[in-house]
Write a structure and sequence with these properties.
97 residues; three-stranded mixed β-sheet
């Protein structure tokens, strides 16, 4: 969702005075609130589900970054190598394919 400038940007004094209502707002609307102090954006208040989704996305991006580094360093196997290795282990355990 986009930022609603009238509803989603609040000074810290307003947040302090209306904390329960602000938490209810972010949980019901899934909109984050930008908290300002002295006219500058300083923090964000968001619901836990959105926060967890964001953290999960960052973790996936970290995994992709690590994978790219491994590929660039030549630390990878082709799919043919992986499946051949798995097939060998499967047959070594006396199982048919």
């Amino acid at each position: 969702m986009g930022v609603n400038l009238q509803e989603d940007i609040k000074p810290i004094s307003y947040i302090k005075a209306n904390a329960a209502d602000m938490m209810k707002y972010v949980n019901n609307n899934k909109n984050s609130i930008i908290i300002t102090q002295n006219g500058e954006a300083k923090a964000v208040l968001m619901d836990i589900e959105s926060y967890q989704t964001m953290q999960n996305a960052f973790n996936l991006l970290r995994i992709i970054q690590l994978s790219e580094k491994d590929i660039n360093a030549g630390r990878y196997k082709t799919s043919e190598e992986v499946f051949s290795n798995l097939k060998g282990k499967y047959l070594a355990n006396g199982k048919n394919i």
